[in-house]
Structures are given as C-alpha cells and as structure tokens.
Write a structure and sequence with these properties.
This protein is about 80% helix and about 0% strand. By secondary structure, the chain is mainly alpha-helical. The protein is built from twelve helices and no strands. The chain has one domain.
Length: about 240
C-alpha cells in the first residue's frame, strides 16, 4: 500500500461523506482529487462499484423518504435516455469539451441559486418541462460517460423544493438504479477487472467512515442551511468537472 493509495482512501472517505450528507457528488469529487494520483480511466472502475453499496445503505434506512412520483415519472424516463447515449458515446469518444461546457453551465446555475438564497428567495419555481427534460437528458449523458451527471440532476431536483431527506433518498434511488448498469458496462468492456475490484474492497473501510460521518451531519443540519450547502457543493462540482 503506497502513499498515493492512502491519499485515495482519504479522498474516498471525503467523497462518500458528501454522498451521505447530500445525496450526490461522490464521483465528481473523488475524480477531481484522485486524478492527481491516478488516471481517470483507472479510478472509475475502482470507485463506481462502491457507490451502489453506499446508496443501498441510505435507502435501507430511509426508503420511506423516496418521492416515487418524481423518481419514476420525471427523472428515470428522461435521464435514462441520456444515460444509454452516454454509455455508447464513452466507448468511442471522450468528449472533454462537452465535459468542460457542462462544468461552466453548472457553475453558472449554482451561482444563480446562491444569489437567490442570499435574496431570501427560498422557494424558486420548478423549471419548465422543456428545460427540465433537456437538463435531465444531459445529466444522463454525463452519467453514462463519466459517472458525473449529478450536478445537472441536482439542479433540476433542487428547484422542486423537496425536504432534505426526500431530496437525498430520491437521488440515492436514481444512482442505485443507474450505477449497476454502468458497472455492467465496465465489466463487459473489460474496464472492471479482478485487480480493480480488489482495490475497491480495500477502499471499503474508507467508504464506511464517510457514510457514518455524512449521516451524522445530515441529521443535524436544518433545511435552509442544507439548501445553501447543496448550492455550494454544486459550485464545487462544476469547478471539479472543468478541472478534470
């Protein structure tokens, strides 16, 4: 176990803290920091297999908070289309320019949300149906390509003004549905191997530490502060996508 792997373990704990606290941000944050030590193509097959375990933990404890109407009528149909397209594109095209455009867009949207928060506009209107559909399809494409469609999805869902626990559980349900498909695509394409899976299991204790700290903090933050932190995380996530 070298120094780089120990650092990756710390990054893993931090990224899964973010997931358990907010419901998103795991892979974006882990890739941004971890890419300084390992190639992204190496990191994805190591980190993504851990994510369903974390989401399953959240849903086993908080399944009653899932908004099934938002999940199955709004998110899955639109995001699912983009997700399939993203997986196909990833096999042939890396799309770095597309990724950076997404990062800029997320930064602008998060700044807009932070400005609204500072103006005490606590209940923004939901996005129009065409805008929401376009954002969700784009989120699906980015999830299929880089496992980082969370920022755009979070922007759409945050405009629905859901309670923090409903927000987190609904997002976790999305990832629990989509990430196993992503893992299967890694196995089929040979990206996920016994060696990468072994490294995933070595990072499991770090994930558990992050889960419990994130759960502790989620219970103790109020709704208003939670929305502010989510907007800040969106800003970080957008910058992270550009950096990567």
């Amino acid at each position: 176990m070298d120094t780089h792997f120990i650092i990756l373990a710390c990054i893993t704990a931090a990224s899964y803290f973010t997931l358990t606290f907010s419901g998103f941000g795991t892979i974006v944050i882990a890739l941004t920091l971890g890419a300084h030590f390992y190639p992204i193509k190496t990191l994805l097959p190591i980190l993504v297999p851990l994510t369903p375990l974390a989401n399953l933990y959240i849903l086993l404890r908080h399944y009653n908070y899932i908004n099934t109407s938002v999940l199955f009528r709004k998110i899955i149909p639109m995001m699912g289309i983009g997700f399939i397209v993203g997986i196909i594109i990833f096999s042939y095209f890396q799309g770095e320019l597309l990724k950076k455009i997404l990062g800029v867009l997320v930064i602008l949207l998060s700044l807009q949300e932070l400005a609204r928060f500072l103006k005490n506009d606590a209940c923004p209107r939901p996005l129009s149906k065409p805008t929401s559909a376009a954002a969700l399809i784009s989120a699906g494409v980015m999830q299929g390509m880089y496992a980082s469609g969370g920022p755009l999805l979070v922007y759409v869902i945050s405009r629905l003004n859901l309670p923090k626990s409903v927000f987190r559980s609904t997002l976790s349900a999305v990832w629990l549905i989509m990430n196993p498909i992503l893992i299967a695509s890694y196995i089929f394409s040979g990206k996920l191997t016994y060696a990468s899976f072994k490294l995933s299991m070595m990072l499991l204790p770090s994930m558990v530490i992050g889960l419990f700290i994130g759960e502790f903090m989620h219970r103790r933050i109020d709704e208003k502060s939670f929305k502010f932190v989510v907007s800040l995380l969106l800003l970080v996530a957008g910058a992270a996508v550009i950096i990567n």
